[in-house]
Design goal:
There is one protein chain. Helix 1 crosses helix 5, helix 2 crosses helix 5 and helix 3 crosses helix 4. The chain has a 3-stranded antiparallel beta sheet with strand order 1-3-2. The longest helix is centred in the first third of the chain and has 29 residues. The protein starts with 8 loop residues before the first helix and ends with a helix. The chain has a single domain, classed as Orthogonal Bundle (Arc Repressor Mutant, subunit A), CATH 1.10.10.10. The chain is mainly alpha-helical. The protein is built from 6 helices and 3 strands; from the N terminus they run ααβααββαα.
């Protein structure tokens, strides 16, 4: 990596604004889900990805990639969730692990989805103009 000059005052303001806004939205959405359902943001993220990306099950490595988490973090999170009967883990023939949502996990995420949707709308979508939303989608490559 080549050395770079320090960020300008404007660049720093932009970075801090982005960081503050994104962290606040994520925190508020997670808080609303937890208050209404008892699921943490991490619990909800894992359960929703199991359903949305794997029809209820994924290899542990695939789940870690989808969450953007390292091996240790996903393992600890799954251990906690398995202890609460939200999912199961089993070994695969390739010496990996398969993670599957349990009936209790499915029930919990089904209760949480409308709360999550409402929170995302309240804390993010309703705060943006259509131009701002388009700009964010463009930046994310999700145009």
């Amino acid at each position: 990596m080549t050395p770079s000059k320090p960020l300008t005052t404007r660049e720093l303001r932009l970075w801090h604004a982005w960081e503050s806004f994104s962290e606040a939205v994520i925190s508020r959405v997670g808080h609303d889900v937890t208050q209404a359902t008892g699921l943490s943001a991490a619990d909800y993220g894992v359960l929703s990805r199991l359903i949305d990306l794997g029809n209820g099950q994924l290899r542990q490595r695939e789940l870690a990639v989808a969450m953007g988490w390292d091996k240790s973090r996903i393992s600890h999170q799954l251990t906690r969730m398995q202890g609460r009967k939200l999912l199961t883990r089993s070994k695969t023939a390739e010496n990996g692990s398969r993670v599957a949502i349990s009936p209790a996990g499915r029930k919990a995420v089904d209760r949480a989805r409308p709360v999550h949707a409402l929170a995302v709308r309240r804390h993010l979508i309703e705060r943006l103009t259509s131009e701002q939303a388009a700009a964010i989608l463009g930046l994310a490559g999700a145009g």
